[in-house]
Amino acid sequence: MNSSKILTIQLLFLSSGLFAQKNYQVFIDLTKVTSDQLLVEMFTPKVTGNQIDFHLPRIVPGTYSISNFGSYVSDFTALDQAGNALTTTHPDANTWRIENARKLYKITYTIDDTWDTPQVKEDIFEPGGTSFEQDTAFVLNTFGVVGYLRGNEKKPYQIKIKHPEGFFGSTSLESRKSETPNIDLFETDNYHTLVDAPILYAKPDTAWIKVANASVLVSVFSARGKSSAKALVNDVRPILEGHAKYLGGKLPVKKYAFLVYLSNKKNIARYGALEHNQSCLMFMPESFSQEELSSEFRDIASHEFLHIVTPLTIHSEEISNFDFIAAKMSKHLWMYEGVTEYATHHSQLCSGAISLEEYLKRQTEKVTTSKKYFNDTLAFTVLSSEVLDKQKGQYRNVYEKGALIGLCLDVKLLTQSNGEYGLREVMARLGKKYGMKKSFKDAELFDQIATMTFPEIRTFFKEYVEGGKPLPLKETFDALGIHYNPDASRKVAEIKIGFSAGLAPDKKHLQVTDISGATGLGKRLGVQPDDMLVSMNDEPLTIETYQECFGKYAANAKAGDTVKFVVQRKDANGEAKEVALQADIREEAESYIAIEAMASPTATQQKIRKAWEGR
């Protein structure tokens, strides 16, 4: 790189004075995008050693999976103050080793976005990734764009982002006024704070509301303008106000941001959000109806917002000192995700946003899903500490059994205290004891909670969180005056078919890949592996229509109906022929878990339930 280019970029930072060589200074120009790539230019803090490693994260908080953001970097260069290139090696996907590092002055590299770079084979969930669409929108999860020098993560960052005319950068970060038009200036005290705050750049569709002591931003990007921030603010306002009351009327943040990207891509297989301490980034299909979007947004926002409690104000050393390359997982996913998910629904019950009947319906789904699809005897501390590898397949249980742990613990605290306090109050005490800037030791949390409550609570943790004993659900619900029957039975129309399918070789249809889970209906249909699905109930079944076809079927199918498929199947000679398959839907006996309120609870049960419901 020539020296005149270095001088040009330096001029943007002259106002910083002695800031240079002490902190990071980063410049990103969103007006210059080539093939979905951005140039990142970084002036680095002074290095004292002969060698140093520069990283982009291998893993980031909240994802519980490997991302390898360094895989998206190309043209990495380290320079001294005269513009001379320093020797670098690239020992792994996320590391650049810089020699003669005392002379290091500046680093430059080009980075691809994660949403639209098929040549990179990482599987990064869209809310935890990046998208650079020139003149359209930019999704900047900063950990997917900006890196750090090993051992220098705690040094401050100054980020300057030049954006297209008319664009607005929505984020939980506070933007300082820049001396240059269309350039936003962000400053953070360290790398951890920087990467905890995604930024959505687009033509602004924003709305603000005041919730207790916090200002909440909702920012929406929708290519076709299918939804507005104002509509989503109205959807989420009562939920957030209920949360504020649930948390005692005062929130631990002054600002929070919901960043919502509505994608017009076809056949979106997954959607959702990634939480941050003071914001969350959502990725959802633009094809949702307004009713579907409102419902999904409320559900997601309800959960993610409550992360302001944990891990923002209650977290272990593993989180506050998160290692982006070789992360050590905390043992306490039961709290970070499980208690957050529990509070998501419990808060709505306490505020009257949902009825007890609806609340119990949701808990029934959690019990059923947890017991059917996950290992019920696996200790949750083991699940947490091994979630990146050995227990990766068990992760989703943090939202099912993890939430049920929260329920059982809450009721246990209420019964032990005779209705005086529950989990909400204990979490508030932990928040005061630790707070944003103080971490607890992973191995000591259970003892700390037991010390501030009852010895029986330590036994609860030992048996049901550190141990693999199934949760005391019957005892828990009974204390609330609620029937719990895990062995109920009923007759239902068996509409599930139970085969798995993937993309067919023609890339236009679905092909059956596995029939091992076929139900009675699936077996009567006679579906076989490698069948290519041509039609369902006389309607074409393609990659574009399958969601609508199966959705219509699930919504309308009933006992006595006939299900029809046409499949393309190879005969003994390898010739593909169309085969018609059909079978009638029958009523089958189904065991299920029944959870419903007692008609005449005892006085003790009524007392505990009233305390639990916040009445």
Question: Brief description of this entry?
Answer:
Helix content is 28%, strand content 27%.
Labels describing this entry:
615 residues; alpha+beta; Immunoglobulin-like; Neutral Protease, domain 2; 4 domains; 7-stranded mixed beta sheet; globular; disordered N terminus
Folded structure, characterized:
The chain is built from 16 helices and 28 strands. By secondary structure, the protein is α+β, with helices and mostly antiparallel strands. It has four domains: 200 residues, Immunoglobulin-like; 103 residues, Neutral Protease Domain 2 (Neutral Protease, domain 2, Orthogonal Bundle), CATH 1.10.390; 171 residues; 91 residues, PDZ domain (Pdz3 Domain). A seven-stranded mixed β-sheet has the order 4-7-2-1-11-14-13. Strand 17, helix 3 and strand 18 form a beta-alpha-beta unit. Helix 4 crosses helix 6 and helix 9 packs antiparallel against helix 12. The longest helix has 19 residues. It is globular, with a radius of gyration of 27 Å. The N terminus is likely disordered.
